[in-house]
Every structure is written in C-alpha cells, then in structure tokens.
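User: quick one - fold this with NAP bound?
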Amino acid sequence: MILKVGLVGAGGFGSIHLLGFSKNSHCELVAIASRTEEHANALSEKFNIPKIYFGDEGWLKMIENESLDVVSICTPNYLHAPITLKALENNCHVLCEKPIALNREELNQMESLLNTKDLIFFTSFQKRYNPTFKLIKNILNEGILGDITLVRYYFSHYGPYKSWRALSKEKWFFDSQKAGGGVLLDLGVHCIDILRSLFGDYDKVVGFDSNTTCIEMEDEDNCGVLFRFKNKSTGFISVSWCNEPSETIDIFGTNGFIKVDLSGRNSPSFGPKELKKNQKIKKLLKFKPSNEFAQDKLIDHFINCIQSGRQESPNFDDGRKAVEFVLEAYSFKK
Ligand SMILES: NC(=O)c1ccc[n+]([C@@H]2O[C@H](COP(=O)([O-])OP(=O)(O)OC[C@H]3O[C@@H](n4cnc5c(N)ncnc54)[C@H](OP(=O)(O)O)[C@@H]3O)[C@@H](O)[C@H]2O)c1
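Assistant: Sure. Structure tokens for the protein plus NAP:
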C-alpha cells in the first residue's frame, strides 16, 4: 500500500524528512504546508510535491483537504502538539519532531487521543539509529564494564543559526513562546532519550544549572543536569549552543570505562588496558561511521511499523519522557 504523506514545516529539518520519505518506495509526497509561500514552494519544487499550503493555518487546511495517511511535523516546537492533535483526529499516522510538546497538558491531550486510535506515532529521535549506540549496547549487555556507576553525555554546537541551518526568518528558536525552552529542550531531549535507551529510565533530576552567555535570548544557551537512573547510577547531561560542535558519551563501571566521540573524529578511549582483548570493545574501536542518514532509517522504520500495524520505539512514551525530563529540570529554575 502506498501511503500519502503531507509535511508541515518547509525548513531545515523538513527537507531532511522529505529526503527520507522520497527514498521510501511505499510513500507518495502529496502536499506540503509552511508559514511562507516562498519556503513551501522551494521544497515543493525540489521534491516534486504537487500541492502547497501556506500561512499560519495552512496546515489545518492541508490536513482537512487532503486524504493523508501520514503527517510529518517539522515546525517550531509550539505547533507540534496542535498539529499532532489535528492529524490524529483525521486518522493520520504521525511522525513528530522533538520536543513533541511544551508542557504536561499538551502531552496528556496527545496521549488521550492517541489511546483512542489505532495509529502509529513516532518521535523523531533519529540518533537512536546511529550504529555506535548498538555497539555500546552490546558492550553493556555483556557486562564488560561491570556495574555502571556514572554516565556523562556532552552535546554542543554554536546553535541553530550557526552550526545548524534553521531556515525560518522568524528565528523562533530564540523565542521562548515558540521554542518553549532553550538548549536543554533542543539538544537535551536527544541526550536523555539515548541514555534511557542504553540504561533504562531515569528516576529523578537532582541538580540543575544553566546560563545565557552567547545568544541574546530569554532561555538558557548552556545547561547541565545531574540526575539518577532507576538502577541507581548517576547521570550527567551537559548541552551548549556556545561551543565547538562536539558530542561525546563517557560510561564508567566497576570494571572499566569507555569514552566515545560520537562524531567519529576521535577513536574511543577505554580502560583498563586489558579491555582491548574483548571482542565487543574491538568492534567499537574498529567502527567507522558511514554517511548513511539516520533520519532515512527512522522513516523506513516508521513506515514499516505503519504497514505492519506495530507500534515500536521511538514512540509517544519516549517523546513524553524526554519532555518530562526537561520540565523536571526546568522546575529547578523557580
Ligand atoms: N531530530 C533532530 O535532530 C532535529 C534537528 C533539527 C531540528 N529539529 C526539529 O525540527 C523542527 C524544525 O526545526 P528546523 O531546524 O527545521 O527549523 P526551521 O528551519 O526554522 O523550520 C521551521 C519551519 O516551520 C515553518 N513554520 C513556522 N510556522 C508555521 C506554521 N504556522 N505553519 C506551517 N509551518 C510553519 C517555517 O516556515 P517559514 O520558513 O516559512 O517561516 C519553517 O519552514 C524543530 O522542532 C526542531 O527541534 C530536529
């Protein structure tokens, strides 16, 4: 069955979604909605999409007028929940960008409606498809590092308009009402999602600090969150929009540690030396990142789940837990 896909948000990440859908032979791109005609047109021409909608509420008309099977949401964060609700009401499967909502009310509304429908919802946590995490998971499953005691995830770059090419002239990432938060809501949701997928759920946030140093904005552009996992190990997430692009994970256990540069620029380090003999560690050391797009893999998985009627991860609950983690951390601000 060919699925009719409509995309909302013809920006930087919208085009990455369109690339993924255009390569999937089970999808037909039928419509695109964006705020400005200019950006909707540009992507409609690039991806040969027959219908465009524009204006602040063009997405409403698109969902009402087109018989869509799938709605893909790549708009500013404050629109994720309203567009999801409208798409679900119209019996569309949803691929929603992170963060999937800005507050608990929105999360509850989305969850209640989703529970009444037989529809697939995917949160766009494409980092899960990075093969490095599978290699790390294999090391953890074998217990090579012993009991895990401390995990640190560092993720930084120079922000959405310098390191990442966000397109909208609104510069909404720096508008508290439209973004819903700062760098923690933007990058931190990825970090907690990966850590949950590797180590299980977190228990509680125990410490938080943030500042705004390099960008003129209300919310934070640097942030650190200290937390505890349900398995009692300690977690630390540090995110920044004021630093060189860098993404690393450090995992310490009672028998050793690994430190992995997720960009693949530097080889992983580990200790003690004897770990080098372990086959799973050898695999991690030999791994060379490919240029395959993680988003393509996520979209193929999402479409596969729709075709087979299976809801797998990254699902609504994964999106919800990541937002709740950030809300819990933000509650320390008060
Ligand atoms: N999963 C990831 O790793 C990842 C990476 C990057 C971004 N994202 C997420 O993707 C989303 C979009 O980010 P981006 O970087 O693509 O930003 P962007 O380039 O600014 O794109 C946002 C798009 O939404 C459009 N838009 C604004 N208001 C709209 C409305 N009322 N109706 C329809 N479209 C509207 C904008 O239109 P105009 O351009 O016409 O103003 C723009 O094209 C964000 O939620 C972000 O967190 C995720």
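One thing worth noting: The two ends are 51 Å apart (CA to CA).
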